[in-house]
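> @MW can you paste both from yesterday?
MW: sure, first one:
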Amino acid sequence: MSLEQTVWRIITPEVKPAAEIVATDDVIHRRVSEGKSPPTVVFYHWKPSVSIGKPQAISDLNLDACREYGLDIVRTPGGGRAVLHLGTKDISYSVIGPSNGLNHVQVYERFCGRIAEAIQYLGIPVTIDNKNDFYVNGRKISGNALRINEGVITQHGIILCEPHDPEMMLAIMNPALYGKQDLSELRGRLTSLKEVAPHIAIGDLVGALQEKLTEGRYQAGKLTAEEQREIVAETARYQDPNWFPGNSIRGLCWLSKGEERGSLRGN
């Protein structure tokens, strides 16, 4: 089925542990490739945690600080850089469906364009930078990462709903990566839904996103019993971020350092 004909399943946001969220994306990705699950857009609130991309070195993080803040650490099977998740202070989404032969640039053009349409529909003057980052009035409000393999895409992203503390963001990273100048830059770089449009509720944002991402072709759904069983099994795997020996110095998604950014493709 082409993306133009796809009817998407929408799963509305819940607060869930990091390993369960990553396992959910992985299970749906695999099952879509096998024709066992429909193309799906899943919305999440992560319990306080830090996610890193598959290639990223665990040494990019300050593990002691992560523990002090009570943050779980999870490695995803996709690309991207370290992301701090803070429950309902942000909203995450995963778009999982057939790739139809699109490459990573084409996928970002399609779905990031639709995300921008959703945010603009709410009256927020958002712009896209570097294919997959979203800015409002020159400040970053959202970032995305992408995985393409088995004929399936999983594009996942985060939108800040409330301000995130820049000091906390840099404290959980390896102190060798960032200094006072970076902290000053980060303070001036971030924004959130509450800051740019305090009258807009998270539910309004989710509604606009599901409408635009799917071009109106969607139906509300939930995980099947078979999916839930597979997710339980996969969650155990993702409890340990060392399930893959990442060695790429990538830094924080909001203030990158290290190797050139780019998605993990075909692995």
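MW: second:
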Amino acid sequence: MSLETNNVMEKERKRFNDEELEEFRLLINQKLVDANIDYTLLVASLSNNDNHGTDDTGRAFNMMEDGSETLSREEVAQLAARQEKFIQSLQAALVRIKNKTYGLCRVKGTLIPKERLRLVPHATMSIDAKNEQKKR
């Protein structure tokens, strides 16, 4: 069966079966483990007050170091916020699996192809719906 034929068949289906949902549940749980580890590391780096041994260097150097550190901390804070949002999206996907609504495009009501969900397991829109949204 070709990929195109398979996608047409999936669009006609109303939902994934329990075996398919279990496959996605396992995938999402693994991504959640990895995402939580990354999030923990980001938060830990934000709370790290290590001065990298610059206490005995010149005042001008310390001021430059402080500015660089502030910028870096802001970037890490943004990464942590994005990671937290990603974790929430994965958790919401698990709720959709439990409710057996996982994989349904929230715009078109069609089944999102498995290939897309394997790459972006928290997706709530098909590629077509996503592209239409970008055009607006």
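> thanks! The chain has a mean pLDDT of 84.
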